[in-house]
Design brief:
Length: 119
Amino acid sequence: QVQLVESGGGVVQAGGSLRLSCAASGRSFSSYRMAWFRQAPGAEREFVAGISWSTGGTTYADFVKGRFTISRDNAKNTVYLQMSTLKPEDTAVYYCAGRPQGYAEYAFWGQGTQVTVSS
């Protein structure tokens, strides 16, 4: 059974940093694409960043380019989201997700972790 467990959320002042972790278990993810999404109150869930587990290739939403970095540790089966220069508008629940390469939909989701950026 696939399980994605996020951690690392919290409250931080604007301009600060946080690192989110997503521990993946239940199968081999070598052929998977992993991603971080976020959802603010009253807003749609939106894509933040993605990474190919096999190649390490990354993609980012325009609003986080230069501030957030997605990475993975194969040995620990963990995906990270390093967030810097945080803004109040980054406040949201952040979700880790995974899908097999070549599939359009993300099939597996974590429970989410709250990030609150105070001004």
